[in-house]
Amino acid sequence: MASRSVLPTTLNKNTRQAGATEALVELVRDMRLHLSAQATLGLQWLPKPAQTQETQVEEYSVETLEDIRADLGECKRCRLHQGRRHIVFGEGDPRARIVIVGEGPGYEEDRQGRPFVGAAGKLLDRMIVAMGWQRPEVYIANVIKCHPPGNRNPREDEMATCGPFLKRQIRAIRPTVILTLGGFASQYLLSSRSPISLLRGRVHQFEGIPLIPTYHPAYLLRNPGQKGKAWQDLQLLMKLVDKETVESVQR
C-alpha cells in the first residue's frame, strides 16, 4: 500500500520537472527568434542594468594604453595625417591619478612626437610642480593626435574621429581627476558648447570621473592676468585628490 501511494507522487513530480524543462527550452527558443528578428532590424545590443562605478572600472581596465596605441597604428583616418611628422599619442604614468588633456599638438610637439614640449609645455610643467607632482607622475594627452596645419584650431570632424581614442585612454587609466586645458578639450569631453570662461571654476563629470576645466597654458602666456583664476582651478583639483586620498585610507 505504501509503495502505491508514493508512486503517483513521484510521477507527478517528474512530470512537473519535465514540463518546466520543456517550458524553459521553449522560452530560450523564443528568445533566440526574437533576438534574430531584432538583429535583422539593426539592433545589435540589449539594454543593460545600470552599472556602478566599480563594474565600469572592471570593464574599462581590460584595455591597456598599448592596446589603444596599436589600434591607432599609423592613423590615416582624417586629413591631418597628410602633413604630420609624428603621431602624438600621449605620455606619462599609465596609472596616473591625474590625466591632463589639451586640444592638439603644436609645432614642437609634432617635431618631437611628445605632448606639451613647447613654451606652453614649459608653463604646464610649472603648473604640475606647483600642485605637488612631477610630469612623469601624471598622464598628458590631446583630443587630436596630429598637428593641424598652420596651428589652426581642430575641426569638429577631426575631433569626432580622433577623440574616441582619448576617451579610451582615460578609461584605461581611470584617473582620480581629469584636468582639461582650454575650450576645445573641455567642450569635447563635456559635450558642451559653453566657453571656457563659463566652464572653469567648478567640478564637472566625465563618465563618473571629476573633470576640472581651466585655461590653456598658451592662453595664459598671452594673458598672464588670468593665471590667478587658473591657480584657483588647480587648487580645486588638489582638494579633490586629497579628498580621494583620505577616503581611500579610511576604506
SSE diagram, text form:
Blueprint: H1 2-40, H2 53-60, H3 65-72, E1 91-92, E2 98-102, H4 107-112, H5 119-130, E3 139-142, H6 156-173, E4 177-181, H7 183-190, H8 196-199, E5 204-206, E6 209-214, H9 217-222, H10 227-250
Parallel strand pairs: 2-3, 2-4, 4-6
Antiparallel strand pairs: 1-3, 5-6
Written account of the structure:
- The chain has ten helices and six strands.
- With 251 residues, the protein is α/β, with parallel strands linked by helices.
Number of strands: 6
Q: Terminal Cα separation, in Å?
A: 65 Å
* Average predicted confidence as pLDDT: 85
Helix content: 40-55%
Backbone CA Rg:
26 Å
Instruction: Please give the largest β-sheet.
Output: 6 strands, mixed
Strand content: 5-15%
Structural class: alpha/beta
The number of helical runs is 10
Order of helices and strands: HHHEEHHEHEHHEEHH
Shape: globular
Instruction: Give the low-confidence spans.
Output: 1-11, 43-49, 52-60
What descriptors fit this protein?
disordered N terminus; six-stranded mixed β-sheet; alpha/beta; 251 residues
What is this structure, in a nutshell?
By secondary structure, this protein is an alpha/beta fold. It has ten helices and six strands, in the order αααββααβαβααββαα.
